[in-house]
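Blinded run. Sample ID left blank on purpose so nobody reads anything into the name before looking at the predicted structure. Input follows.
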Amino acid sequence: MRPDLVILDLDGTIIDHRGAVRQALDLWLPAFGQVSGDELFEAWIAAENRHFPAWRSREISFAEQRRRRLRDFLPLIGQPVGDEDELDRVFDGYASAYAASWAAYPDAEPALEVLAASGVRLAVLTNGTDEQQNAKLSAVGLQGKTGPVFSSEALGVAKPGHRSYLEVCDRMQAQPSRTVHVGDLHDLDVVAPRQAGLQAIHLDRYDAGPHTERLRASSLAQVPGVIAGI
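Blinded prediction complete.
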């Protein structure tokens, strides 16, 4: 199958979010007299996973999900939890370190070039803010190489809401059945888009499974071949 459109997730697919978080903590935590390590890294990721979905579903603001993450994390490094203004100031320090750490996976640009050369149209669908997600692509030199970027903020609906995938198909004038979604989170990037009528490939970079998944790749370099076999 040659699809009409390939929709790519951003963080964990094109941008190395986990790598950027780890490096950001290495840069940020010494200001608090702390040395980053696996335990604090996993605690930060766990706090993000706990509170980001509430912003995704529009229950809280983007700033509030950041504050909630800090309320969980700061006691772990022996820091007081201040008021909202103080939490915002503290998070600004992390955000600067995170932005300085953005990097694309090495396989991202070559895979985008192969897909584009095959005549397939590309787009990005990401659960994030317009400003930050576009800034990531610009920082790593991939702005304009991924096709249009559709953020959950701009669409008004986030993955795994079926309307998010269908809205991108509609705006790109592509049939869902001839669209392939690619991403690292099996529930958001594979199960949900399939339920919405799209094809989907699981990009399982860290061998997390499920290993029963039929359409699976361990790197973006494998995705064009998996698409050809659909």
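Unblinding after everyone has recorded impressions. The two ends are 6 Å apart (CA to CA).
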